[in-house]
């Protein structure tokens, strides 16, 4: 997606140089920052379309940067760089408003694929007027208003969570594999790990299940299905 602006934040000069070079080669306009404070300032000044954000920074840290940016109303994509197998970093990153993550050491083609996929998601236009209103049990999703309610209680979701829930509700009662969900919600070019699906499903469950019986069920060995808890398996 040539011409789109990306802010890369990492305190390792070698990583900054490599990512700036590779992303620039692929047509992106790249700005770099080495600390959380610099990242906050650059995000305000450069108005990026996406931020590649390291979790471990020398001052305020990537998770706090993400939370602060979201609190200020910034809706650009955020892809975290995390340490290998740091599951809590991944979960926290998604919780604080991140859109995806890549573990270090990472392959450049994987990072590029995820950057492009997130850019496509955040650039999606809002649904046209008269969009569908989906309902399963007491769960309701309004595409026009981009709102979700369960039992009449509003449920705050990130854009990726909203897209995931919409896909599950549109396929109510149908078992969906991780690969199908990746294709439909993340639109990945890269056929890598599907752990991001499990993390997002888990986080979506926590938001929905506190308001009523579970609606998203695991079909072991196959994938996930959304159905009314009163419906037989």
Automatic annotation (TrEMBL):
Highest rank taxon of the organism: Bacteria
Family annotation (PROSITE patterns): OMPR_PHOB, RESPONSE_REGULATORY
Domain Response regulatory, chain residue ranges per copy: 5-119
Gene Ontology terms for molecular function: phosphorelay response regulator activity; transcription cis-regulatory region binding
Positions of the OmpR/PhoB-type domain: 131-228
Tagged with keyword Transmembrane helix: no
Name by which UniProt lists this protein: Response regulator
Organism: Microbispora catharanthi
């Amino acid at each position: 997606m040539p011409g789109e602006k990306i802010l890369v934040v990492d305190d390792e000069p070698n990583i900054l140089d490599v990512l700036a070079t590779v992303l620039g080669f692929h047509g992106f306009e790249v700005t770099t920052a080495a600390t959380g404070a610099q990242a906050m300032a650059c995000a305000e000044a450069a108005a990026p379309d996406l931020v590649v954000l390291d979790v471990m920074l020398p001052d305020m840290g990537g998770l706090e940067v993400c939370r602060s940016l979201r609190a200020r109303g910034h809706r650009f994509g955020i892809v975290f760089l995390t340490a290998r197998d740091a599951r809590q970093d991944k979960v926290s990153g998604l919780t604080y408003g991140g859109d995806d993550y890549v573990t270090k050491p990472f392959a450049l083609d994987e990072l590029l694929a995820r950057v492009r996929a997130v850019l496509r998601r955040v650039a999606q236009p809002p649904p046209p007027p008269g969009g569908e209103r989906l309902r399963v049990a007491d769960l309701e999703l309004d595409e026009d208003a981009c709102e979700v309610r369960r039992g009449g209680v509003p449920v705050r979701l990130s854009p990726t969570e909203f897209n995931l829930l919409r896909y599950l509700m549109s396929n109510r009662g149908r078992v969906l594999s991780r690969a199908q969900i990746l294709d439909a919600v993340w639109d990945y070019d890269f056929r890598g790990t599907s752990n991001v699906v499990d993390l997002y499903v888990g986080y979506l469950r926590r938001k929905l299940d506190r308001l009523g019986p579970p609606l998203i069920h695991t079909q072991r060995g196959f994938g996930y299905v959304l159905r009314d808890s009163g419906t037989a398996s």
